[in-house]
Amino acid sequence: MQGNEKITAGQMGLLMFFAIAASAVTVVPGITGKYAHNDLWLSPIWASMIGYVTVFITCRLHQLYPNQSVIQYNEVILGSFLGKLASLFLIFFYLHLTGLILRGFAEFVVGNFLNRTPISVVMISMLLVNALAVKGGVEVLGRTAQLFFLIFLLPVALMPFLLGSMKLHYLFPILEHGLKPTFLGAASPQAWFSEVFIMAFFLPFVTNQEKSMRSGMISVFGTMLLLTVINFFILFVMGRQAGDFLYPVMVAFRYISVADFFQNLDSVVMGIWIIGMYQKISVFYYATAIGASQILGLRDYRPLVLPLGILIIVMAFWSVPDQLRVSQFDTLAFPIYGPLVQTVFPLLLWILAIWQKRGQATNTGRTAMTNSGKS
Q1: Exposed end of the chain (fewer CB within 10 Å): N or C?
Q2: Which residues sit opposite 257 in a β-bridge?
Q3: In angstroms, rounded to a whole number, what is the distance separating the alpha carbons of residues 276 and 88?
Q4: Which candidate, 305, 308, 313, 2, places its Cα nearest to that of 134?
Q5: For residues 269 and 271, what is the distance between their CA atoms, to the nearest angstrom?
Q6: Contact assessment for residue 20 and residue 195, using Cβ atoms and an 8 Å cutoff
Q7: Sequence-ordered list of residues with C-beta below 8 angstroms from that of 76, at least 6 positions apart, any chain
Q8: Contact assessment for residue 161 and residue 256, using Cβ atoms and an 8 Å cutoff
Q9: What's the confidence (pLDDT) of residue 1?
Q10: Are the C-beta atoms of residues 69 and 285 closer than 8 Å to each other?
């Protein structure tokens, strides 16, 4: 099924960066601001901890079962029936999550820029482009991640133009109400960091396996650093009002004006953000297609790309009725739903795998001792 497609650990790390950061940069500052207020810059640091744990568990599982994705070693660890059941649930989870990501993207675009465009047009247009990328294979995804990485970071380079609108005193008092608000602000972002588990579908394609864990850890650290920097800028521009906006990043960039000429940069940021969302949706779409083909025992995942695309569109319409429900899902359901599937479930798999390996080693030792005694 994999053919000769290969990516480097660095390319996989960039894919994981987009998988976490692309949607988080617009949504997370508003969520953390609601709870942490002027300490919102601390929340991504606490939230990233679950990302490091998830990378560690995922790589350890891959070391135990090299050249296999999570769909394949599910059956080895849990048995044929339970393994298939767990794999089916996992594919449904990513199908559902991809639909939610697509819906969140479309709601943002329609709500902020294309007010008269039917949301279905935005979703179908994006998914058609994603389908082409997914059909191109993992190498196409890896190379586009390399191409778009620096472009995606361009808004960070534009943030110094906000200096005229910044007020550094918004940072104080630090930890006025202790650490609790910052932990509450981290509850939702930690679900985004748990998404790094999707690397379990890409690890079999990595050429330099020994660098996989380091690349995953760097991706989590890079995302944490990006969110922390963005939260600082949002705080210095808006202060405690950051939590009052659904997309504070876009609001902040509207403050940029240099000589009444260099302004309205929110549209530039929007275009760059679309590139990031294209990459993120493609990663989840590809993982869903690969996983579904492995469950069905197909040699090639490509015949499933368009049917799964239709299901993703259905999920995008079926899961949530409007932007309000998308926001409620991000703040209330996803903080439990995401880590439960993407961190707790792999942790249980890892514990079971270690137990099985030790049991097999013990049985092998006993058999060897018995045979030597007989001889």
Answers
A1: C
A2: 263
A3: 28
A4: 305
A5: 5
A6: yes
A7: 65, 68, 83
A8: yes
A9: 46
A10: no
**Site of tokens 């099924």:** 1
- The predicted model scores a pTM of 0.91
3-state SS, the chain, equals CCCCCCECHHHHHHHHHHHHHHHHHHHHHHHHHHHHHHHHHHHHHHHCHHHHHHHHHHHHHHHHCCCCCHHHHHHHHHCHHHHHHHHHHHHHHHHHHHHHHHHHHHHHHHHHCCCCCCHHHHHHHHHHHHHHHHHHCHHHHHHHHHHHHHHHCHHHHHHHHHHHHCCHHHHCCCCCCCCHHHHHHHCCHHHHHHHHHHHHHCHHHECCHHHHHHHHHHHHHHHHHHHHHHHHHHHHHHHHHHHHCCCHHHHHHCCCEECCCEECCHHHHHHHHHHHHHHHHHHHHHHHHHHHHHHHCCCCCHHHHHHHHHHHHHHHHHHCCCHHHHHHHHHHHHHHHHHHHHHHHHHHHHHHHHHHHHHHHHHHHHHHHHHHHHC
Find where tokens 């579908």 sit: 201
Chain centroid offset of residue 67 CA = 22
Per-residue DSSP letters for 129-152? HHHHHHHH-HHHHHHHHHHHHHHH
User: Taking phi first (over 0 means left), then psi (-120 to 50 degrees means alpha), and beta for anything else, what does residue 351 get?
Assistant: alpha
Q: What DSSP state is assigned to residue 303?
A: G
Note whether 224 and 52 are within 8 A (CB): no
39 with 174: CB under 8 angstroms?
yes
Please answer whether residues 69 and 57 qualify as being in contact, where contact means their C-beta atoms are separated by less than 8 angstroms: no
**E-state strands within 206-332:** 257-258, 262-263
- Where b means 16+ CB within 10 Å and e means fewer, 87-106 reads beebbebbbbbbbbbbbbbb
What confidence tens digit (pLDDT) does each residue in 343-371 have?
999 999 999 999 988 877 666 655 555 65
Residue 363 has a pLDDT of 63
Cα 366 from Cα 61, distance rounded (Å): 26
**Structure tokens, 209:** 């396996």
Low-confidence ranges of the chain (pLDDT < 70): 1-3, 162-164, 256-264, 361-375
Backbone φ and ψ for 258, nearest 5 degrees, come out as -115, 110
